[in-house]
Every structure is written in structure tokens, then in C-alpha cells.
Amino acid sequence: MIRFENVSKTYPNQVRPALQEMSLEIERGEFVFVIGSSGSGKSTFMRLILREERPSTGRVVVAGKDLNRLSNWKLPQHRRLIGTVFQDFRLLPNKTVYQNVAFALEVIGRPKGQIVKVVPEVLELVGLAGKEDRMPNELSGGEQQRVAVARAFVNRPMILIADEPTGNLDPETSVGIMKLLDRINRTGTTVVMVTHDQAIVNQMRKRVLELDQGTLVRDQARGVYGYVR
Ligand SMILES: Nc1ncnc2c1ncn2[C@@H]1O[C@H](COP(=O)(O)OP(=O)(O)OP(=O)(O)O)[C@@H](O)[C@H]1O
Asked: What residue stretches are annotated with the ABC transporter domain (predicted)?
């Protein structure tokens, strides 16, 4: 589903690469944690998958497409394969829960009939049935993140990228969000999640990719956060 072949990325006017000679393959349906200290290259890794950045050298292949060869007019199509969730939720503050999720489908031109059918389904899936008409500021942090997950998933993307989705949530609420991401993963969606949350990584026992100063230093199945070598 996602393949990195000797990928290095050095940003303009930088000397040190943000990512260095990274090679890995993530299969369809996997759940992968990406960990590493600040500046280790986690966001760069995610941005390369979205083709928000291009490699300096090497190839990134997503769903069979070499992103170096993807023309700009095909970018929206590529990004539609990938749902994104962030630490700070990024909901539209002036739209209701329902409208936030529906909007994701409206902008890609989905017919009204489909929207009124699938939005309630996905809100039910994330546990927000009955809260359709709330505004984001009338929701708890955990509920806001559920809206963000619903919005990312409503289009049934092949890949879900989550960048510290529990970073603003207390431990108990975080567990709820992780259960939700796990459920989405079980539908066949590949989940790639950046996190600093040790407890979550240790509980879930999924594949762990660890970056250190741009280098992939660990790729461990059913991994834990702190690794005893
Ligand atoms: N647009 C940019 N221009 C120049 N340098 C950048 C840019 N984005 C990131 N970098 C540098 O690349 C390196 C990796 O950054 P990246 O944001 O990928 O790390 P990260 O692991 O996501 O960090 P954090 O946990 O703080 O979000 C850092 O040294 C950073 O300063």
C-alpha cells in the first residue's frame, strides 16, 4: 500500500536531511505507529505519503502509484485515498457536527442522496449519533476528535493518517479514540499514526517504526515504545 525506496529528503537551504535513505513497505490493512523525538522526521514521512513534499532522492509508491510521476492534476485523486486526523482536530467552527462531515463529501462532488445516507452512518460508527446538530465548541475534546475521525473516514479512504490524534486528550478519552481507530483499521483501512503516547503504543502492540534524526532505526512487529536492545 505504501512503499519507500531509499527515500531521502533535504529541505531547501538545509544541510541535514530530514529523512535519510528510508526503505520500508506498509501492507494494505496494517496498523503502524511512527515514533521518534521532535525533529526526527515523522511529519516529513507523512507529508511524503500525501505528496505535500517530494523526496530529494528515492521513490514513494502509494497504492501502486509512483508519486514522483504523479501529475499535479492527479493530486486531488491521490489525496482522496488518504484520510487525515490531527492533534488539534481542525473542525470548521461555524458548522455543526453533521455539516463538518457532510462538507468533506460535498467538496468532492458526492450527490446529496449519498451524503444524507452515509453521514448518519459514519456518525453512528464513531459514537456521535444524537449530536449531529451540536457546534464543535459544544463538544468535549474527545467528541471533537470523533468528528474529525468521522470526517476523515466518511469517504472510506484506503489509508488513514493520524498525526498525534490523542495529543490533546486525557488518557481515558485517548483509549476511546484508539478503539475507534482500531475499528476503522479492522474495516481494512491502513492506519499510520504518529504518536508520543507510550501507554498507547505499549497497549496496542502494533508495528512500530522509530525514527532518529531522519533515520529509521527500528521497524518492529507488535512493538513497544521503549525498546530494550
Ligand atoms: N519546511 C521545512 N523547511 C526546512 N526544514 C524543515 C521543514 N520541515 C521540517 N524541517 C526540518 O526537518 C527535520 C524533521 O522535521 P519533522 O517535522 O519531519 O520532524 P517531526 O519528527 O515531525 O517533529 P515533531 O515531533 O516536532 O513534529 C527537522 O530538523 C526540521 O527542522
From this structure: 2-228
Q: Which atom of ligand 1 is nearest to the CA of 36?
A: 21
Residue 114 and residue 101 in contact, taking contact as beta carbons nearer than 8 Å:
no
Tell me, yes or no, whether 86 lies in a domain.
no
pTM of the model: 0.95
Task: Give per-residue pLDDT as tens, 188-228.
Answer: 999 999 999 999 999 999 999 999 999 999 999 999 998 65
Here the cell at position 102 is: 457532510
- Exposed, middle or buried by CB within 10 Å (0-12, 13-18, 19+), for 172? exposed
Out of 13, 16, 33, 44, mutate this one to test ligand 1's pocket (max ligand atoms within 8 Å of CB): namely: 44
Distance 37 CA to ligand 1 centre (A): 11
- Distance (angstroms) between ligand 1 centre and the Cα of 38 equals 8
Whether 7 and 74 map to the same domain: the answer is: yes
Q: Which residues line ligand 1 (CB under 6 A)?
A: 11, 14, 18, 36, 38-44
Centre of ligand 1 from the C-alpha of residue 39, in Å: 5
* Domain assignment of residue 65, given as a range: 1-81+157-229
pLDDT digits (tens, 9 = 90+) for 50-96: 999 999 999 999 999 999 999 999 999 999 999 999 999 999 999 99
Q: Is 3 helix (H, G, I), strand (E, B) or coil?
A: strand
Q: Whose CA is nearest to atom 11 of ligand 1?
A: 18
Q: Are residues 143 and 171 in the same domain?
A: no
Q: Give a yes or no: residue 87 inside a domain.
A: no
d(C-alpha 21, C-alpha 126), whole Å: 38
Q: What angle do CA 35, 36, 38 make, to 5 degrees?
A: 125
Last residue within a domain, chosen from 133, 156, 179 = 156
Domain-terminating residue out of 140, 156, 172: 156
